[in-house]
Amino acid sequence: MRPVDTARLAFQSIHRYPLRTTMLLLAVSIGVAAVVLLTGVGEGARRYVTGEFAALGTHLIVVLPGKAETAGAGGTGTIIGATARDLTLEDAMAIERSAHIAQVAPIIVGSGNASWRAREREITVLGTTTEMLDVQHWTMQLGRFLPDIDMDIATPVCVMGSVVRDEFFDNTNPLGQWLRIGDTRCRVIGVLTQGGITGPFDTDELVILPIASAQQLFNAPGVFRILTEAVSQDSMDAARRDIIEIIKARHQGEEDITVVTQDAVLATFESIFDMITMGLAGIASISLVVAGVLIMNVMLVAVSQRTKEIGLLKALGAKERHIVALFLAEAVFLSLFGALLGLILGNAGTRLLGTVFPILDFSAPTWAMVAAVGVAVTSGLLFSILPARRAARLDAVLALAGR
Amino acid sequence: MMRLENICRDFQVGDQVVHALDHVDLEIKPGEYISIMGPSGSGKSTLLNILGLLDRPNLGTYWLNGADVSSLDDNALAEQRQQHIGFIFQAFHLIPRLSALENVELPLLLAGAPVAARRDRAREVLDSVGLATRLDHRPDQLSGGERQRVAIGRAIVMNPGLLLADEPTGNLDSRSSEDVIELIEQLNRNGISLMVVTHDPDIGRRAQRHISLRDGKIVTDDGRLSR
């Protein structure tokens, strides 16, 4: 029998039982659509997170005090680590002298009581330098950012986020007003554009001081982190080595800092999200295997429905492999059409999700679509081997009699 | 030419062994027209199935054109069947979703013949059974007699040496029966061996050689007597 004829006969059988065909297509397509949707959601989340990281600047290198034993996004343990030697403004200035470093923005974070006239609230204070605006890609809504002065010079000025501005000054112009923070007073020189959470901070809720002023306020000589930006993508490694060398030289030869690059953090997140996406794909593929079992069931029913026809084909000289090929072709068609329908449904679903959550891009990865179709067709094929063999081994005499 | 030697076919029914064919010897010469008669359970259908290579004997030898086919495997039997045997069934056994032409093409399709060749051959055969105007009709658009003629067309499309007809008129009215019988007798006159299993004495009588079976044994065979 020619393959074309096998395909044609199998296709005619599919055509002949529309209800059965519809049910099977539905079962397979739901499985495939589930894979596409779930991996799409996983991918959407991954793209969102990596996108957010990219917004921080791709040349970013973060230096934190203390040596984290694990690479990547670690370092949470070292923030409060008492054994680590503090980073200082002098360290930051030393780093700034490296040829591979474009900008340095040391930061210090704490909370303080802020008041203006009768209004008072607890606020988060960020001490940093003028470079921070650039490093974090912040923009100004009003006024200007911190002045470009040496980082160890305290100046009584501050920049605030939009929420802080609204709470203290409502709609009035805050520029030039004196805000009291703890024991000191500082003049408001700028307001950041409303931006929500970018990177580790909710900028809308911040009050930003020159780092030396913040150190005075908190009475702390240390620096929480030093954010640096390499000159270019290619100089990331050199910059990283420079930082370690400089700090080592300044800390009596001890490498007591952790240097986290954007790439490392990104790689960690990507691998986490890849795992999640694969996990989701795995869970969704279970439905494809279930669809495979359904195909087996339906094909077994088809064998008993078509017993006489199988008997006739045998009487007309069909060999076992012809009968097997017919049933396998039918199963492959059903699962393939189901899978294609599932791709359409799944992609329509991710597009719909995209309109509901426009900031996320939910399109499923190509590997997931290929794998879903592959698993669907393979399971359809595998699960119909048993029914096909059963059909092929029917006794011709009994089959013709419909028994 | 076919020869059965000492053929036995037993069936286990419960604890009992039924001898459907009990030491049967039979020789069919090319171009013979044989009718097989006998009461239900006499082994007529079993004999037909063995001759048609749908079933294998428990004992004995079947010589088909000088070759022993009684020990071939299923696939080899299928090939022999395809080349040498044409079946006509009481219930027609046409595939309902295929047109008359496609039903007749089916044996050629299974044999792997190219589309154009088999289409021409099937057309020619349908023309010879008088259905040239019914090529594209599906079985449910044909009368009983026409359906059986499609089935006859399918049986002869591979030019087999032996045509086996199991109650070919059992589902037909008397007029269609006459047409169908005349058609297969015509084919027989053109050289094909014809074996008809029937309950109907009027049809059985028309054959040149009459075999009657009882309890798995050939009780009368005028062909053998005349030799």
Describe the 3D structure.
The complex is a heterodimer of chains A (403) and B (227). In chain A, α1 (3-16) crosses α11, α9 (262-305) runs parallel beside α12 (366-383) and α9 runs parallel beside α13 (385-392). Chain A has 14 helices and 12 strands. Chain A is of the alpha+beta class and 403 residues long. A 6-stranded mixed β-barrel of chain A has the order 2-3-10-5-7-6. Chain A has a two-stranded antiparallel sheet with strand order 8-9. Chain A folds into 2 domains: 3-53 and 267-400, no CATH class; 67-255, no CATH class. Chain A has helices at residues 3-16, 18-55, 76-79, 89-96, 132-135, 162-169, 211-218, 236-250, 262-305, 307-315, 320-356, 366-383, 385-392, 396-400, and strands at residues 60-65, 101-116, 119-128, 140-143, 157-160, 178-181, 184-192, 197-198, 201-202, 206-210, 225-230, 257-261. In chain A, β2 and β3 form a beta hairpin. Chain B contains 8 helices and 10 strands. Helices cover 37% and strands 28% of the residues of chain B. Chain B is of the alpha/beta class and 227 residues long. Chain B has helices at residues 44-51, 74-84, 100-110, 115-128, 144-156, 174-189, 201-205, 222-226, and strands spanning 2-13, 16-28, 33-37, 59-64, 67-68, 85-88, 162-166, 193-197, 209-214, 217-221. The longest helix of chain B has 16 residues, at 174-189. Chain B has a single domain (2-226), classed as 3-Layer(aba) Sandwich (Rossmann fold). Chain A binds chain B through residues 1-2, 5, 9, 12, 15-16, 308-309, 311-322, 396-397, 400, and chain B through 49, 52, 54-55, 74-75, 78-79, 81-83, 87, 89, 93, 95, 97-98, 106-107, 109-112, 114, 154, 158.
